[in-house]
Amino acid sequence: MRGSLPVLRIAAVIAVAVSATLSAPAQAQCVDRAERAPSSAVSAFVSDPSVLLRQSKNDRDKLSGRLTGLLVTDIAALDPVRDMLRQASQADRVAIGAGLHRAEERCIATKPDVARRISEFVAKLHDGSVLKGYLTDEDAAAAPVPGSPAPATASNAPAGPGASAGLMSGEWKTELADPFKPVPLPE
Predict the structure, then answer these.
(1) Can you tell me the distance from the alpha carbon of 178 to that of 24, in angstroms, rounded to the nearest whole number?
(2) pLDDT at 171 (0 to 100)
(3) Which of 50-59, 77-86, 140-149, 175-184 has the lowest mean pLDDT?
(4) Strand, helix or coil at 175?
(5) Model pTM above 0.85
(6) Is there a contact between 84 and 52 (Cβ–Cβ < 8 Å)?
(7) Among 52, 130, 124, 123, CA closest to 84
(8) Residue 30 contacts by C-beta under 8 Å, 6 or more apart in sequence?
(9) Low complexity: which segments have biased composition (predicted)?
């Protein structure tokens, strides 16, 4: 009876440790467990990177989205991207660049070292098409969302009562302005 007591204590400690590990928010790389790509998809991509090109066919959004999902799940999927690029068309390379940028953006907050690895990977590729997709996606992320109000800047905020050059005039901007009226010159 005395010999089994330490064994029970050890078993209880192991059970507590395992349950604490499983209940903690698991992050393989940059995202929670619910947002990860299936491990079978990651292993299929690592073993044969062209599988992603075949699955997405000519759907560039699907290609960049799936690549982003693989990279934020497991950074080991980054090296096979180089092999996939050998078989990718010019348009696919642009989509791959966009997917790499999206993966980097998703990893910046949770795993900055992973985001830095992605950025360095793109820089070392020296591929203009991938860089174009990477930078285009960066510009799109910085652009305002359609339908959202633009932030007030010096270029879009009227400087005074007569500075508005729109076609509506009057106190409440309800009267149609004279389109042939000379534009006031700056002094």
Answers:
(1) 67
(2) 73
(3) 140-149
(4) strand
(5) no
(6) yes
(7) 52
(8) 72, 103, 106, 107, 110, 111, 114, 115
(9) 142-170
Which tokens hold the place of 49?
Answer: 């990177």
Neighbours of 31 (CB within 10 A): 20
Nearby residues of 141 by Cβ (< 8 Å), 6 or more positions away: 101, 105
Q: What is the DSSP track for 120-172?
A: HHHHHH--HHHHHHHHHHHHHHHSPPTTSPPPP-TTTS--STT---SSEETTT
Q: Which two tokens stand for residue 161?
A: 């009562």
In contact, 95 and 57? CB cutoff 8 Å:
no
Which of the residue ranges 45-54, 124-133, 139-148, 153-162 would you say has the lowest mean pLDDT? 153-162
Q: Residue 145 corresponds to which tokens in the numbers above? A: 């969302």
Q: What does the block give as tokens for 109?
A: 């907050």
Q: Who's near 110: CB < 8 A, 6+ residues apart?
A: 27, 30, 31
Which residue, among 122, 121, 119, 139, has the nearest Cα to 130 in the 3D structure? 122
